[in-house]
Design brief:
Radius of gyration: 22 Å
Distance between the termini: 31 Å
Helix content: under 10%
Shape: elongated
Strand content: over 45%
Largest sheet: 14 strands, antiparallel, barrel
Order of helices and strands: HHHHEEEEEEEEEEEEEEEEEEE
Low-confidence stretches: none
Mean pLDDT: 88
């Protein structure tokens, strides 16, 4: 029954490839959901959907959270584009045979932006900073020694001055591990409600020409158009090759079917020494009809996973992502603590 369940689930997510409407390309919002987190996943180009475990798997495939069976906490920080910084915090714990539960929050720091108006196009002298957050509750369960499943329930919040939009979404993922180091994984991400901006900043006053503003006339409100969140489907495979007792090589690839962007093929590799020191690399290739290149180039990274004591381990990871259209690249740092 578990095999039949897994096969049915995989067929369901594969069928979602054909569920998108090409007319919706470029019409979605909440693009913060597409910003990856975690130095390990970014360094490998997001290609290890099939085998990522623990907290690193929450963003990429929540099915991997329960495999570690530990209590973990992780903080990740990324210098993004246009002087935007992305902070991410996650924590999880395993509850015996029930499964693993996790909480995570991703926030964007835009810095201080001058307030401009029609009357003061050069600025009013005051500043503002948008507040973009994504909160997620994760549940994951290992069904057998080969199969694990997981889901994320998300709250998306975007606020600009006195205008805001809120939405809900969820992810569903599955991982299947074969013998000889082969794994496959699939996920559907960001399926949920539409979002719509509203608030006091969309309200204004009107008056009859030739009279003072506010003395005659009334108020009006701009009704913003609703928008969808950027859902997509991923299918991944990976292979772990043990060179010898000390060295191993992990290869992975993920196909990403977007409903609002060009499809992607992600490639990644990781070299591990003694399961302590790691070197990583990855690349994202666009599959659009115009064969145009994306703004992101290759990714590189390294990491150390050190066992402090019998029950505590600490990991530090770094990733570099080349950005072609901006003068600075993305630098990502992540620290994780795990307790058995």
């Amino acid at each position: 029954m578990k095999r039949l369940f897994t096969i049915a689930l995989i067929l369901l997510v594969i069928s979602s490839i054909y569920a998108g409407d090409p007319a919706r390309k470029g019409t979605t919002g909440a693009e913060q959901l597409l910003i990856p987190v975690g130095a390990k996943g970014i360094a490998t180009g997001g290609a290890f959907l099939a085998n990522l475990t623990g907290l690193e798997s929450i963003y990429y495939n929540p099915a991997g959270l329960d495999i570690s069976g530990q209590t973990e906490a992780m903080f990740s920080y990324m210098s993004y584009v246009a002087d935007i910084n992305v902070a991410y915090f996650a924590a999880s714990t395993s509850v015996s045979d029930v499964g693993s539960f996790g909480l995570s929050i991703k926030s964007l720091d835009f810095g201080e932006i001058p307030v401009t108006t029609i009357d003061f196009p050069d600025g009013t002298g005051s500043n503002y900073s948008p507040a973009f957050f994504t909160f997620a509750l994760t549940y994951s369960k290992v069904l057998t020694d080969r199969i694990s499943v997981g889901t994320n329930l998300k709250l998306i919040s975007e606020t600009i001055l006195n205008t805001s939009a809120t939405g809900f979404g969820f992810d569903v993922g599955v991982q299947y591990r074969f013998n000889e180091g082969v794994s496959i994984g699939a996920s559907i991400k960001n399926v949920g409600s539409n979002m719509k901006y509203s608030g006091a900043d969309l309200q204004g006053k009107t008056s009859i020409p030739g009279t003072d503003l506010g003395t005659v006339g009334g108020t009006y409100e701009i009704v913003a158009e609703g928008f969808q969140i950027p859902s997509y489907f991923e299918l991944s495979a990976s292979y772990l090759y043990n060179i010898n007792e000390q060295n191993n090589l992990l290869l992975g690839s993920t196909f990403v079917a977007n409903n609002s962007l060009d499809d992607l093929m992600n490639f990644g590799l990781e070299y591990g020494y003694l399961d302590v020191f790691f070197l990583r690399g990855g690349y994202n290739m666009l599959l659009g009809e115009n064969n145009s290149e994306g703004i992101y180039g290759f990714t590189l990274g390294a990491g150390v996973d050190y066992k402090i004591s019998q029950d505590i381990s600490a990991a530090f990871d770094y990733a570099f992502r080349d950005v072609k259209e901006f003068p600075t690249a993305n630098h990502i740092f992540a620290v994780k603590l795990a307790f058995n």
